[in-house]
Every structure is written in structure tokens, then in C-alpha cells.
């Protein structure tokens, strides 16, 4: 079970309090996009084993979307931050680098 903290209202709870919304920091395509862009957005997911950045919504609380950095193997949560943050906070990068030596950062769109 994941334990997440909402960066807006400060509630710390089990993942059942929240709702997952897919990968964070990707460009989302919709109306007006090409077929290839929309197809890649829907089906071409990275889905890494290990460190992953995701979108979550505090469904049973304040209702706001936020981002979480976690490890898909160990279920360790490195931290959460607001959805309006376009760059991953340095403190979260430091936590990930300390726990997963040699892990490389990929470029986010």
C-alpha cells in the first residue's frame, strides 16, 4: 500500500484516498493533434521499472491534482509536489539519487 501526502492540504493517507492519473510531465494531446501524436500519447508509454513520476488526485479530500515520485519496485514514495511545478524539485531528485545510485534522469516534455 502506498502512503501519499497531498502537497496542497497536507493530508497523509493510503492510496485509496487518492486516484492515480498516469505519468506526470508528459505532453498531453487532444483535439487538433495529428493521429500519430494522439496515438503515441494514448499507447506509447515508457512504464519504467523503478523510479516513476505520476499524477495523482486527492479524490476524497481537496480534489486537487499533484505529482508523486515513487519506485514501482519497492513502492517507496520519494515525495509529492504540486501539479503546477514543471520541474522536479531538487530535494526529490536528491532523495532519488541517494536511494538509486546511477539512476539517470530522462528529459520530460
UniProtKB/TrEMBL annotation:
This is Sarcosine oxidase, delta subunit family. It comes from Roseovarius albus. GO terms for molecular function: sarcosine oxidase activity. The lineage of its organism: Bacteria, Pseudomonadati, Pseudomonadota, Alphaproteobacteria, Rhodobacterales. GO terms for biological process: tetrahydrofolate metabolic process.
Amino acid at each position: 500500500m502506498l502512503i501519499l501526502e497531498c502537497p496542497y492540504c497536507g493530508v497523509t493517507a493510503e492510496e485509496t484516498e487518492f486516484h492515480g492519473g498516469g505519468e506526470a510531465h508528459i505532453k498531453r494531446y487532444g483535439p487538433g493533434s495529428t493521429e500519430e501524436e494522439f496515438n503515441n500519447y494514448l499507447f506509447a508509454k515508457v512504464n519504467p521499472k523503478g523510479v516513476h513520476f505520476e499524477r495523482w488526485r486527492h479524490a476524497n479530500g481537496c480534489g486537487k491534482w499533484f505529482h508523486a515520485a515513487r519506485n514501482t519496485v519497492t513502492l517507496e514514495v520519494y515525495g509529492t509536489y504540486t501539479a503546477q511545478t514543471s520541474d522536479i524539485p531538487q530535494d526529490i531528485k536528491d532523495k532519488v539519487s541517494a536511494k538509486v545510485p546511477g539512476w539517470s534522469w530522462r528529459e520530460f516534455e
